[in-house]
């Protein structure tokens, strides 16, 4: 059985989260796991790659709508989220993510190599 690279994981997660953003919904790590097969506890690095890709492209931070579904911090990204925003900043960024047209032809859809060395 082969394992997915982190770049491949980021590629699988991207359209799931972009679709959630298009529908203006936050999505839990558990939801992402259910749709991609990538364990919730293993998503942090791939989501970090998505974060860095969004920053390079000057897109809203798509990873910030992936949130904890239970326990401390419910409704906000987990402790490994790279930006460590305040709750108010997360809500502001979430609004930017929801307002952004992720399906536009002007939005570069990432390829695995776009996540390398990120």
Any idea how many domains?
A: 1
State the total count of DSSP E strands: 2
Strand order of the largest sheet: 1-2
- How many helical stretches? 5
Separation of termini? 26 Å
Radius of gyration: 13 Å
SS-based class: mainly alpha
Q: Name the helix and strand elements from N-terminus to C-terminus, one letter apiece.
A: HEHHEHH
**Quick one: biggest sheet?**
2 strands, parallel
| Gross geometry | globular
User: Which blocks of ≥5 consecutive residues have pLDDT under 50?
Assistant: none
Mean pLDDT: 90
Q: Into which percentage range does the β-strand content fall?
A: under 5%
Helix content estimate: 40-55%
Describe, in plain words, how this protein is organized in 3D.
This protein is mainly alpha-helical and 118 residues long. It has helices spanning 6-22, 29-36, 44-57, 87-99, 112-115; strands at 27-28, 66-67. It has one domain (6-105). A two-stranded parallel sheet has the order 1-2. The protein is globular and about 35 Å long. The model has no long low-confidence stretch (mean pLDDT 90).
């Amino acid at each position: 059985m082969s394992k997915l690279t982190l770049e491949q994981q980021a590629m699988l997660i991207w359209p799931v989260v972009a679709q959630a953003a298009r529908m203006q919904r936050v999505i839990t790590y558990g939801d992402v796991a259910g749709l991609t097969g990538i364990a919730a506890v293993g998503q942090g690095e791939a989501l970090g790659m998505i974060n860095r890709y969004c920053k390079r492209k000057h897109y809203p931070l798509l990873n910030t709508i992936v949130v904890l579904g239970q326990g401390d911090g419910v409704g906000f990204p987990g402790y490994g989220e790279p930006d460590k925003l305040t709750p108010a900043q997360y809500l502001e960024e979430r609004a930017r993510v929801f307002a952004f047209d992720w399906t536009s032809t002007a939005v570069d859809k990432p390829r695995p190599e776009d996540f390398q060395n990120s």
